[in-house]
Amino acid sequence: MQKLGMRQMKKKQSGTITSILADGELGRRIRDMGLVPGTKIQIMGRAPLFDPVALRAMGFTLTLRNNEANYIVVEVEEEK
Amino acid sequence: MNATIALAGNPNSGKTTLFNELTGARQHVGNYPGVTVEKKTGTYTINELKVTIVDLPGTYSLTAYSLEEVVARDFLVREKPGVVVNIIDASNLERNLYLTLQFMELGLPVCIALNMMDVAKNRGIKIDINKLSKLLGVPVIATIARNGKGKKELMDAAANINTNRAKTSPLDISYGDDIDNAIAEMEPLISNATFLTQTYPTRWIALKYIENDEQIQALGDSKNPGVSAKLKKITDRVSSHISKTLNTYPEAVIADHRYGHIRSIIRQDVITYQQDQSRLQLSDKIDQVVTNRFAGPLIMVAIIFSLYQFTFS
């Protein structure tokens, strides 16, 4: 098990959110979307210039800018 | 007798579709005083009872960060609608219930319209409505806003809440020891000074102070600076304690506990998935092709070129 910022995650990697480092409006917005510690996510892909990043959580796809994804720490599952 | 029903929910959960379905052409579009957020009201008649239906702006939560949220929140606490019909996208239950929980924290009379049941069914999501209703303690009605299915049952349930006017007490969940203790410390301060208690529930005021809600804090400052300062002092103490011990913010802890509460409800077999959830929907599949790193730009150029050809030749 390895902890990574969401920006470092590769396509198709999945993991569980361990913490959200953002505060204020951004932090709240991220939490409103259901990204709280314990939520399982998977990286769906990145746009041609590697930003934004699309991820899947709780049955829906969400897209974040990389500088927003930076605040999200994920415990990555081992590749099978 | 007159009654007001407010339609509230996440963006894209089908509020406006349901609103149009209910009110037809009998609606009036205006603005909330002083802000440019559209206010739509219409009327509907249930067994001789004429109700005014208000379509609130779609929000994900009830904080004071965006104009829509402030407008929705102010309407709910000031106008005190007889019933809040919370429209929920059944295919995104967990995220949508986050807002529901916040309505319940405010002690509003909530009735849930579980919308897009057809979409959820297609995705293989089965929801035990009776169980959800029992666990949440509010009526839940399945609807399909697109074809008006369930709207009569929904309005009957809403009218029922409205006529009974049973006093709904604010939802009281635990936010963890640190915050619970701070709330317990704040509550007597608030209720003894009748600090904003005419408009808001006591526990909710305490919660908003801990969440650092600017609107409530400013309101408190203008009403009673003394009590407000005491509450802020408790807030600061909790914040620094939480940032030292947990390296996070009180708002984050509160959000975690809200989601925890929702998950504890959902895990009691409320949802059953009949197919793999990582399966992609059709729109996701289209996205995979048109947003492909190489194919995407090519498809875009091809579309723009054909538009150009179509227009000029």
Descriptive terms for the model:
heterodimer; A: 80 residues; alpha+beta; six-stranded antiparallel beta sheet; 2 helices; 6 strands; B: 313 residues; alpha/beta; two-stranded antiparallel ribbon; 13 helices; 16% strand; globular
Question: Can you describe what's shown?
Answer:
The complex is a heterodimer of chains A (80) and B (313). By secondary structure, chain A is of the alpha+beta class. Chain A contains two helices and six strands; from the N terminus they run ββαβββαβ. A six-stranded antiparallel sheet of chain A has the order 1-6-2-3-4-5. In chain A, strand 3 (40-46) and strand 4 form a beta hairpin. The two termini of chain A are 13 Å apart. The mean pLDDT of chain A is 84. With 313 residues, chain B is α/β, with parallel strands linked by helices. Helix content of chain B is 52%, strand content 16%. Chain B has 13 helices and nine strands. Chain B has helices spanning 15-23, 67-79, 93-105, 117-122, 129-136, 151-164, 177-192, 202-210, 214-223, 225-245, 250-266, 282-290, 295-312, and strands at residues 2-9, 27-31, 38-46, 49-55, 83-89, 110-115, 125-127, 140-142, 271-273. A seven-stranded mixed sheet of chain B has the order 2-3-4-1-5-6-8, sandwiched between helices. In chain B, strands 7-9 form a two-stranded antiparallel sheet. In chain B, helix 7 runs antiparallel to helix 10 (225-245). Chain B starts with a strand and ends with a helix. In chain B, 40% of the residues are buried. The model of chain B has no long low-confidence stretch (mean pLDDT 86). Chains A and B meet through helix 1 and strand 3 of A and helix 3, helix 11 and helix 12 of B.
